[in-house]
Write a structure and sequence with these properties.
The protein is α/β, with parallel strands linked by helices. The protein is 23% helix and 28% strand. The protein contains eight helices and 14 strands. The protein has helices at 47-51, 70-73, 76-85, 105-114, 121-125, 177-183, 209-219, 235-243; strands at residues 9-15, 29-34, 37-41, 62-64, 97-101, 126-130, 136-139, 142-149, 155-162, 165-169, 188-192, 223-227, 249-252, 258-260. It has a seven-stranded mixed β-sheet. A seven-stranded mixed β-sheet has the order 7-8-9-10-11-12-13. Strand 3 (37-41), helix 1 (47-51) and strand 4 form a beta-alpha-beta unit. Helix 6 (177-183) packs across helix 7 and helix 7 (209-219) runs parallel beside helix 8. The structure holds zinc ion (2 copies).
Length: 261
């Protein structure tokens, strides 16, 4: 899985917590780098602080949000404030940074911004693009393919291809075939394992570690990164549950973990 070449995709975990944060942790956020391009994937609560360990936020080339749950986008508010009001290099980029969001997000952002008496706080800071569901588009040198997956709100799993490398982010989702199809043959699948198995219901919007392993095997991915799990669950227990269904390379996401695909 490890490559030291210019075609590589580099992934840095900024936050892997579920809806509540680990001690000193952040909710969903990942820095994806391809050559000189830097994309922030999800921006949950706590992510801005972790992002600044990697780069000044104004150096981002884009931000992409998988779905409109607070643990995946809430730090857009402090990030917007920083981009608008902080001096370079942290804020005040020469051009607005593109922000790719689910349909309807602009309305949600205005409602959220009104809590700060600043409804346009996010649109003032970013160039907003509401993507079409299940669409394919490019961000710089990255080719993206979206697939709608079952969750409590409209949610997209996202495939990123750069040269011959492919990484698939499952976002939040219950068990589903769309993620298997999207991830088929990928170099890396990032899959959530939010639920202890005994809490998973038939209509669940989340997966267990065992189900994440099932999806990795069904998609025949080269490696698996487990995320969106709480520190309250034993990592060894999670790893063992994944291994019941998947024998490939498996890692558990930890803050600031860096992988090269
Ligand atoms: Zn979540
Ligand atoms: Zn969610």
């Amino acid at each position: 899985m490890l490559h030291a070449d210019t075609d590589a995709l580099k992934l840095t975990v900024l936050g892997k917590s579920p809806a509540w944060q680990d001690t000193g942790g952040a909710s969903s956020g990942y820095l994806l780098e391809a050559k000189t391009q830097k994309l922030l994937l999800d921006c949950g609560n706590g992510v801005l602080a972790e992002l600044q360990r990697q780069l000044p936020p104004a150096a981002l080339d884009g931000v992409l949000i998988s779905h409109l749950h607070a643990d995946h986008f809430f730090d857009l508010i402090p990030l917007a404030y920083m981009l608008t009001f902080a001096p370079p290099p942290y804020g005040s980029p020469k051009q607005k940074i593109p922000l790719y969001v689910p349909p309807g997000a602009k309305t949600v952002f205005r409602t959220l911004g009104s809590l700060w008496s600043y409804p346009s706080v996010i649109e003032d800071a970013f160039e907003i693009h509401e993507y079409a569901l299940d669409s394919a588009f490019k961000i710089g040198s990255l080719d993206l393919q979206l697939a709608t997956v079952p969750h409590f709100v409209t949610t997209s799993a996202i495939s990123f291809t750069h040269a011959d490398r492919r990484l698939v982010f499952g976002a939040d989702c219950g068990p589903n075939q769309a993620l298997v199809n999207l991830a088929s043959g990928a170099d890396l699948l990032i899959a959530e394992a939010t639920m202890p198995d005994d809490q998973v219901g038939a209509d669940a919007g989340h997966m267990s570690a065992r189900q994440a392993g099932e999806h990795a095997t069904a998609a025949d991915v080269f490696s698996l990164l487990i995320t969106h799990y709480s520190e309250l669950f034993d990592p060894l227990w999670i790893t063992e549950r994944v291994a019941e269904n998947y024998t490939g390379s498996t890692l558990l996401a930890t803050p600031q973990m860096a992988l090269t695909v």
